[in-house]
TrEMBL record:
Domain of life: Eukaryota
One GO term describing the cellular component: cytoplasm
Name of the featured protein: GST N-terminal domain-containing protein
Gene3D superfamilies reported in the protein's UniProt record: 1.20.1050.10, Glutaredoxin
UniProt-listed SUPFAM superfamilies: GST C-terminal domain-like
Entry-linked InterPro entries: Glutathione-S-Trfase_C_sf, GST_Omega/HSP26
Length: 149
C-alpha cells in the first residue's frame, strides 16, 4: 500500500493501524495491559465503535483539515460534528472520561516526540488540497476512499 504505519513481522509486511493494534495483541499476548477487554461482548462492543470512528470520524477530520474552499469547509465541519454528535449520544463515557483519556495520550512522550506542532497541521493539510498533493493519503481523502484513509 505504501502507507505508514506498517510492521514487518518474521520477514512479512502488515499495515492498517487498527489491524496492527489487534495483531500486536495476538502476537505479544502476554504483554499487559491489553488493548481490548477480555469479555467477548465488551470486546465486540469496543470494535463496533472503533469501526465507527475509523469510517466516520477519521475521514471526516481529514476532509475538514484538507478543505480550503469555505463552502467545502463548512460542509466538512457539519459532517464531522454530526458524526461526533452521534458518538456522544450513544456513548455515555464520551464526555469527561474521553477528555481525561485524550489529555493523558497527549502527555505521553511517544506522542509528543512524534507529533508536529499543532499550528502547522492546518497549513500542511491545506497545502495538500491547494497543490493537489499526490500522496496516497491525500488522494484517498479527495476521493472519499474510507477504505484507504
Ligand atoms: N488507513 C490507514 C491510513 C494510513 C495513512 O493514511 N498513512 C499516511 C500517514 S498518516 C501515509 O502513509 N501517507 C503517505 C502517503 O500517502 O503517501 C491506517 O489506518 O493505517
Amino acid at each position: 500500500m505504501g502507507l505508514v504505519p506498517a510492521v514487518e513481522y518474521k520477514g512479512k509486511a502488515l499495515y492498517q493501524s487498527i489491524i496492527l493494534c489487534e495483531f500486536l495483541e495476538d502476537a505479544y499476548s502476554s504483554y499487559q495491559p491489553n488493548i481490548l477487554p477480555a469479555d467477548p461482548y465488551t470486546k465486540a462492543y469496543v470494535r463496533i465503535w472503533v469501526d465507527y470512528v475509523v469510517k466516520n470520524l477519521i475521514p471526516g477530520f481529514k476532509r475538514l483539515v484538507q478543505a480550503q474552499d469555505p463552502e467545502k469547509r463548512k460542509q466538512s465541519l457539519d459532517e464531522l460534528l454530526a458524526s461526533q454528535r452521534k458518538l456522544a449520544e450513544q456513548r455515555e463515557d464520551a464526555g469527561e472520561a474521553w477528555k481525561k483519556y485524550a489529555d493523558n495520550v497527549a502527555k505521553r512522550p511517544s506522542v509528543i516526540n512524534t507529533s508536529s506542532d499543532p499550528e502547522h497541521y492546518e497549513e500542511m493539510y491545506g497545502l495538500d488540497d491547494k497543490l493537489g498533493a499526490q500522496s496516497k493519503a491525500a488522494k484517498a481523502i479527495r476521493a472519499r476512499r474510507e477504505d484507504i484513509m
